[in-house]
# Entry
Amino acid sequence: MSKERIYSILKSFNGLSLDELDSVKLQNSVDSKFVFKEEDLNIILGEASKFYNVLDLGGIRSNSYHSLYFDTPDDHFFISHHNGKLNRYKVRYRQYMDSGLCFLEVKFKNNKGRTIKGRMKVPEITEVLNAEAKAFIDERIGKSYDLQPSLWNSFERITLAHKEIAERLTIDHELKFSLHGKEARLSNICIAELKQEKLDYSSVFMKIMRAHGSQPSGMSKYCIGSLLLRPELKYNNFKEKLLRLNKLSHGIVPAYV
# Structure
């Protein structure tokens, strides 16, 4: 779907400033992810427009993001996620291209299914972690790891906030990945992530997605992007997700099976 078409649909939403969005931070949340075809985005947004406001940065309502993930030489964070280990971490830089903000972030998924994010503002993304960055990561994780760049990704993100309750929603599209000169993309794929203070299946967005035949499904951009560029990685527990992505993308995403 073209940017022009998406922008046309997003005009029907009430705009939200970055300061207003920050009042619904939800840095400690229960997250539910949904994967669907980009061609369904216009219908889904249309149904959500009465209930959610959209982040508007100077008239831009689908914002550009760049991220750089870090992992150990033996892919500890990736393997932990693949194996379904709880109390697991992700480490990344994230640059918000339209606002100019950049953060070093450590995400923690605990054994109660909650996602807790800590972040430190930085001037820019760097492939070498300086002493301050290492200290921040070590403090958040509670131990020191030998970390190296493991995946670049970029995408467009639509950010929505419910008009009445503490609930945020992001919809990512135009996903691209790169590492050491190799590139891959998820064509015709949208990944939505619903953040709630506690899991509530009566959420408007939950109902919209159920009506379109989409159920909550774990989907890590880091893990899928890593597999697209490094098929030698362990993937057994991601087979179902890869098959679904393969179907949604009309065979562009390899299914590995």
